[in-house]
Amino acid sequence: MRGRVLMALTAVLVGLACGACSGESTESRSSTPSAVSVQVTEAPSSTPDRAPSTQQLEEMLSRAVDPNVPIEEKVQLVQGATIADGPLFDELVKLRSDNPQVSWHIGRPVLEQPGLAKAQFSVLMGGTNQLAYATLAFDEGRWKLQRSYACQMIVQVGRDSPSCR
């Protein structure tokens, strides 16, 4: 159950990579670059007509799991979230610190229509790779996790959120 909660709450906060944990596994890697290891740098998006970059999503999660970022800033990551949703962010911070072995990867976000994008992500927990798609909405001048998607994930793990009522 704990892994499922971490997966869902991570999905809720859009990102499966963060600066401190960058999605790298503990497997040994060749020092020779391969086509698979080459990453294209995407420009960040601040408009509804272009999907957010993978880096933007990684930064969102980094802020979401950072215990030093105030709740007032964290609620800006999810469409419709309020200060009353603070305990969900606190739980995510705790779950992340309790499960440092979990790694993740965010696929390149795709614009489905102006103001709406999707990003595939995978989470590796206990040797199991779980795939999901996060839906993002351009709201109040920035990309955020779409409210309906966040609420669906919260309900799936048996949690409640004031913003979903």
UniProtKB/TrEMBL annotation:
Keywords: Signal. The keyword Signal applies. Residues 23-53 are annotated as: Disordered. Residues 51-158 form the Low molecular weight antigen MTB12-like C-terminal domain. It holds the Pfam family Mtb12_C. It comes from the Bacteria. The keyword Signal applies. Residues 1-22 form the signal peptide. Coiled coil: none annotated. Belongs to the MTB12 family. This is Low molecular weight antigen MTB12-like C-terminal domain-containing protein.
